[in-house]
Amino acid sequence: MDGSRFLDLPLFWPCHLGSSLWGEEAQAIAFGPDWDDAQELYKTLSSPDAWPTFTVHLHSGYALHVVYRNLEGDHGVDYLLSHPDWTEAVTLATDDGHFMGPGLSWRELESVATQAAGALDPNARLLLLFPMLGDADVPETAATRLAAAVAALTLVEDPAQLARLLLLNQGQ
């Protein structure tokens, strides 16, 4: 199903970034007093009846798809690359109990986020694809950029601290 209805929900973003929210401190900063509401939203996102899907269009004609895979007993988020000339998409990464992927470097993630193709806002692109990040050499400016995206799309009280924790615990 088209997941775009979730993009305007401030709690969607901490739920989506959940695999990088290691420890009680990160979870407390991300969810604050909204823990119960976040649990309810996560139940909706992981329902076997609907697989929320988000598409990030690239200038090149390719598209990245973020798919909540909600098979009974096999939940996760798949990151796929497609092109109109291809018969099927290629899996770039999976974010579940056993992360798979090459991931993205910070430079690649930021490049995709700033592309103007499609309707998604650059902050939404950055946070949608953040779980694919796997970069051992993230520039110092990354925390500021990530904090700005968190501040723009969530109700997190300390976006700078959350950004630092997300970058510290990037990927699986």
Spans where pLDDT lies below 50 across 5 or more residues: none
- Strand and helix order: HHHEEEEHHHH
Mean of pLDDT: 91
How many helices does DSSP assign? 7
The structural class is alpha+beta
Q: Assess the beta-strand content as a share of residues.
A: 15-25%
- Global outline: globular
Helix content: 25-40%
Q: Total domains, how many?
A: 1
In summary, what is this structure?
The chain has 172 residues and is α+β, with helices and mostly antiparallel strands. Helix content is 38%, strand content 17%. The protein has helices spanning 12-16, 23-31, 35-45, 106-114, 122-129, 141-153, 159-168; strands at residues 53-57, 63-71, 74-82, 90-95.
Can you put this structure into words, describing what you see?
With 172 residues, the chain is an alpha+beta fold. It has one domain (4-168). 38% of the residues lie in helices and 17% in strands. The protein has helices at residues 12-16, 23-31, 35-45, 106-114, 122-129, 141-153, 159-168, and strands spanning 53-57, 63-71, 74-82, 90-95. A 4-stranded antiparallel sheet has the order 1-2-3-4, with helices on one face. β3 (74-82) and β4 (90-95) form a beta hairpin. α4 (106-114) runs antiparallel to α5 (122-129) and α6 (141-153) packs across α7 (159-168). The protein is globular and about 45 Å long. It starts with 11 loop residues before the first helix and ends with a helix. The mean pLDDT is 91.
